[in-house]
Design brief:
Elements (H helix, E strand, L loop, with lengths): L2 H10 L2 H13 L10 E3 L3 E5 L5 E5 L2 E7 L2 E11 L6 H18 L9 E7 L32 E4 L5 H6 L4 H13 L13 H12 L9 H5 L12 H29 L4 H7 L4 H10 L7
Helix pairs in contact: 1-6, 9-10
Length: about 300
C-alpha cells in the first residue's frame, strides 16, 4: 500500500473526521451524522473475472451509519490524486458488492442505501469529466433509453468554497486549507486552530509534499508532532509559519533537483548557482554526491 493512501485512510478512519466529511459534503455542514452512530464496515470484497479466477477489491474507508439497531446507510470514501476515466466503473463495483452483501445478511425487508464519496486531492486540474457511467461508454443511440446511468459523487477538495471549508469542525479542515493553499499559492485566514489528530495531519502534509513540488517536505515538523497531540492549540501565526516552512522546502527541493540535472549535463557549478536558488557551496556539495558523466 502506498504511503499516501495509508495516511489518508488513517485520518479519515477516525469517526469524528469521517462524520465531519459526510456532514459538510452531503449535508452542507448540518450535524446529520453523529460520530457515535458510525461503525467500521468491511472494505474488502470479491468478484470473478472468469470462471476460475476470483479477484479482490478494497475500498479506502467504509462505515455503517446506524440509528440504534437500525442501519441507515453504508458510506464509503475513495481517495483520488488524479482524475480517473473509469472511476464510475470502480464505484459501481464497490457499491454493487455492498448491496450484494446485504443479501448475504439474509435481508428480510428493504435494503439500506450505499453511498460513495470520491475525494479528489488534485490541485492542478479540475475533475471535469468521468462522473457518470454513460460518459465512459460507446453507446448506440438506439440503446440509450434502455441503459441505466450510474452517477458518482466527486468532491474537488482544493476547490471547496470558503463556506464549506469553515463548516469543517474536525482536523479535515486543515487538509482542505492545505490543498487550497497549494492550488492558489495564497495564505488562508484561520481562527483558533485546534488539532486532535496532529500526527496524522502532519504525516498527510508530508506525504502530500511528495506529490506536489509546490509544497515540499515537513520532515522536522513530523519529529515535533508529539507536541501538538491531545487537542493542543496552534495559533494562526504558528500554523502559517509551519506552512511557510513547508513551501520553502518545496522550493529548495525543486532547486536541488534542477541543479542535479544540470550537473549531470556538465554545466559548471558557478553557472548553476546563478540559475537556481542555491549557493555555490551547496552546488559544489551536490557535485560530490553525484556521478558526473565524463565529457566525450
Amino acid at each position: 500500500m502506498a504511503e499516501k493512501d495509508k495516511v489518508q485512510k488513517t485520518l479519515e478512519s477516525y469517526n469524528d473526521v469521517f462524520a465531519d466529511i459526510v456532514n459538510v459534503l452531503l449535508f452542507d455542514g448540518r450535524k446529520v451524522v453523529d460520530e457515535n452512530d458510525l461503525t467500521d464496515a468491511q472494505t474488502f470484497s470479491y468478484y470473478k473475472m472468469d470462471k476460475k479466477k476470483i479477484h479482490g477489491q478494497e475500498r479506502d474507508v467504509a462505515k455503517i451509519w446506524n440509528n440504534g439497531e437500525i442501519r441507515i446507510s453504508f458510506i464509503g470514501l475513495e481517495n483520488q490524486m488524479k482524475p480517473d476515466k473509469f472511476m464510475p466503473l470502480r464505484v459501481i463495483g464497490y457499491d454493487g458488492a455492498a448491496y450484494r452483501n446485504q443479501l448475504n445478511e439474509e435481508l428480510k425487508d428493504k435494503c439500506y442505501p450505499v453511498i460513495t464519496l470520491v475525494l479528489y486531492f488534485g490541485t492542478k486540474r479540475r475533475w471535469k469529466r468521468y462522473k457518470a457511467l454513460k460518459e465512459v461508454m460507446n453507446m448506440p443511440v438506439d440503446l440509450e433509453p434502455f441503459i441505466a446511468d450510474y452517477k458518482i459523487n466527486v468532491f474537488e477538495l482544493a476547490w471547496l468554497s470558503d463556506e464549506q471549508i469553515q463548516s469543517f469542525t474536525s482536523d479535515f479542515r486543515y487538509v482542505a486549507i492545505l490543498l487550497r493553499r497549494i492550488r492558489t499559492g495564497k495564505p488562508y485566514p484561520m481562527t483558533d486552530p485546534k488539532y486532535k489528530h496532529a500526527r496524522e495531519i502532519l504525516d498527510l502534509f508530508r506525504v502530500m509534499s511528495q506529490n506536489n513540488k509546490e509544497a515540499g517536505i515537513i520532515l522536522d515538523d513530523i519529529n515535533n508532532a508529539n507536541k501538538l497531540t491531545g487537542g493542543n492549540h496552534m495559533t494562526e501565526e504558528e500554523f502559517d509559519e509551519m506552512i511557510n516552512r513547508f513551501e520553502d522546502r518545496g522550493a529548495q527541493k525543486k532547486a536541488i533537483e534542477d541543479a542535479t540535472e544540470l550537473l549531470k549535463e556538465n554545466i559548471s557549478p558557478e553557472i548553476i548557482a546563478k540559475c537556481v536558488k542555491l549557493s555555490l557551496e551547496q552546488v559544489l556539495e551536490l557535485q560530490k554526491q553525484i556521478t558526473v558523466p565524463a565529457q566525450a
